[in-house]
Known about the structure:
Largest sheet: 20 strands, mixed
Radius of gyration: 22 Å
Number of domains: 2
Strand content: over 45%
Number of strands: 20
Structural class: mainly beta
Helix content: under 10%
Amino acid sequence: MLVFLLIFVIIVLTVILILGIKGDFGFFNRGQRHLLKSEKYAINNIENIKVEAREAQVKFIVKDDVQDIEISIYGKNEEYAVIQLENNYLSVKYKSTAFCFGFCFDNSLIEIIIPSNYQNDISVDTVSGDVYLDETMAKKLQVKTVSGEIEIGNYKDVVLTTTSGDVKVSSAEHLEVRTISGDVDVNNILGYVNISTTSGSVNIERLEVLKNSVIKSVSGDVEIERCNTVYVDAKTTSGDIDIYENSRLSDIVLNITTVSGDIEVN
């Protein structure tokens, strides 16, 4: 058994070494990121920005002193970098060819500089890549990632989905989050929240609920540091419940349920 295990390890190391020599394994060429493609478009020509990436980080940088949207794709394979504008729909795509053996060290990047007064929709879909977005005036933000963190600024309407990764939100009026494995941290919510996590804690600094809302966690604590006076309908199978102020007369209901985790609302 030990001999077979040793042979397996040798084969894996040999494959990684060969790919590293060829330049296909990100760990060996982490600093070899190049600008593959760059485009600039006037803001009044864009109604929707759609980003699709694989093994690449996506970063939106908001600036007050610009009026154009500028996209830059950094990586190693230019043929997989696509920037296209059609019918006011801006599509940005990049698929890295880095070899990832359970983990990935590739540093490909899609960087989008956007004016602070951009008011239309933004959607991002990634596999193995983190997503960072500064605050904009976008009407709706949708982010979906498989194995990657999401960190965003202040937005009105937000829908976030991640299979494996933490979620951090500065502020939102309408927030929907679905995560299978990852914590959810929110600074401020004013309006509506619907959060569901399978394995991860939920922490909200300030929550002002203006309509019926839901927070669900299968395995993880739920903590709200400050909440307006509403009826908190809290249930847990295995955990403690601590609610500072609860109003059964309120027309607004905040449902919080956990299977294995504490619930604390202040």
